[in-house]
Amino acid sequence: MTAGTQQRNIMASPAMRGLLYATVALVLTVIHVVFLGFVAFGIVTPDLLMILVVWIALEEGQFTATVAGFAIGLLYDAAGADVLGSNALAKTAAGFAAGYFYRPGMGRTTIGSYRFLLIVFAAGLVHNLLYFTLYVQPMQVSFWQFVLTFGFATTFYTTVVAVFPMLYVNRKKEW
Amino acid sequence: MRRFVDFVVRYKNYITLTALVVMSFSLMSIGSLSQLGGFRAVIVGSMGWIQSMFAWVPNPIALKSENTALRELNLQLSIESSRFRQAMVENTSLRNMLELPAYTDDKLIAADVVGKTTVELRSYATINRGRAEGVKEGQPVITDAGLVGNVVGVSEHYAVIQLLLNRDTRISSKVYRSNVDGLLTWQGDEYLVLRDVPLAFDVKEGDEVVTSSYSVLYPPNIIIGTIQHVGKEANSLFLNIQVKPAVNFGTLEQVFVVDRLPSSERLLLEDSIITEHVSKEGSR
């Protein structure tokens, strides 16, 4: 049995995949909170966790992505000292929206193509419009100006960063 | 029951979505629960520890914007500091001036110097007080440092002062220490000259020169300056005394006009005696 075959057998187990996603989510949360300030433009940063939610949606389906989005959003709310439930709500909706593009067995193919960027953009738009709507509620600023400016800016930035996992999967020949 | 289970399985995604959305809103509404606060404190503490480990990593973008902001703040603070220094100097000067009324019974009219003119060795200053404020021609002008000059022209709201640094300056003055009388004039350089002091009289460098009671225009004992040099000229019976003015005319900004005019009776009497003497000399 080759190493690649062994790896595939391990990853066939949903529990192992869940553990892997949880670990990646934890690592990305730490990166998000600690390091993303270095690549921020004002308050605009790429949403790495949102990319993970879309990845899970394309690999595991809508139901798993919805639950994963909730869990990952909740983790980020706790770690980032944000309003508990705000990111959970936004990522739940993003996971649900991205889940519409799930095709059994076509996960890696989709992720390694430009379609992944479009799905990330669409899901990111849903996520950010929802999140910034909640964000701007208690503030004395123009709703549409703020949401459309920062919502779209964050979505575009996230889509640009999504190029890296897309290229990574695209170069892998084993899938 | 089976239909219910089929329904749930068929629409599990939407049911899950609804349930999680409701849970999210519930969490948002109860975000301040103490148990949650404890959990979050642990998370925030852990994140804070990790962030502190990487706090040494510089953020170039943030540093650049911080630099720009600090530079602007520095400039603003420099301007403010300069204003405060100027205000402090002005404050000290004005405080000194406020002590003036204690040394004179005459009313003082405060004024700002708004202009200075020098025409053929005649120096004048314009102040922003005039007839409306009680300024009259002939009134002496002083500062806390000493004598400035006298008013030679008045309009409704402005007046012109003839400064001591003026070729027409003739002030009856005396050396305060030894009561030696003399006539103070100006010859065109930085010093005033005390004239008509005989060689034998007691005059030293450092002595203060003040207005004497013989002066018609000025009240007595107003500081004029300090003796800088006492010399003896060849073939002269008098000392060559140079007096440094007490007032710095280059930085004159605030002055006081003394509400005091020469006694008209005295002026008339002195004029009549001089006129009578001159006519007697002429008739001879």
Describe this protein's structure.
With 175 residues, chain A is mainly alpha-helical. Chain A has a single domain (3-171), classed as Arp2/3 complex 21 kDa subunit ARPC3, CATH 1.10.1760. Helices cover 75% and strands 0% of the residues of chain A. Chain A contains 9 helices and no strands. Chain A has helices at residues 3-11, 14-34, 48-60, 62-79, 86-99, 107-111, 114-136, 143-161, 163-171. In chain A, helix 2 packs parallel to helix 4, helix 4 (62-79) packs antiparallel against helix 5 and helix 5 packs antiparallel against helix 7. The two termini of chain A are 17 Å apart. Chain B is α+β, with helices and mostly antiparallel strands and 284 residues long. Chain B contains 5 helices and 12 strands. A 6-stranded antiparallel beta barrel of chain B has the order 1-2-5-4-3-12. In chain B, strands 6-7-8-11-10-9 form a 6-stranded antiparallel beta barrel. In chain B, strand 6 (171-175) and strand 7 form a beta hairpin. The longest helix of chain B has 39 residues, at 60-98. Chain B is elongated. Chain B starts with a helix and ends with a helix. The model of chain B has no long low-confidence stretch (mean pLDDT 82).
Describe this protein with a few key phrases.
heterodimer, A: 175 residues, mainly alpha, Arp2/3 complex 21 kDa subunit ARPC3, 75% helix, 0% strand, B: 284 residues, alpha+beta, Thrombin, subunit H, six-stranded antiparallel barrel, 12 strands, elongated
What would you say about this model in short?
The complex is a heterodimer of chains A (175) and B (284). Chain A is 75% helix and 0% strand.
Largest interface: A-B, 30 and 26 residues
**Order of strands across the widest beta sheet of chain B?**
1-2-5-4-3-12
Q: What would you call the quaternary organization?
A: heterodimer
Overall domain count of chain A: 1
Under CATH, the topology of chain A can be stated as: Arp2/3 complex 21 kDa subunit ARPC3
Tell me the number of helical segments of chain B per DSSP (H or I, 4 or more residues long): 5
What distance separates the N and C termini of chain B?
153 Å
The helix-and-strand class of chain B reads: alpha+beta
pLDDT averaged over residues of chain A: 84
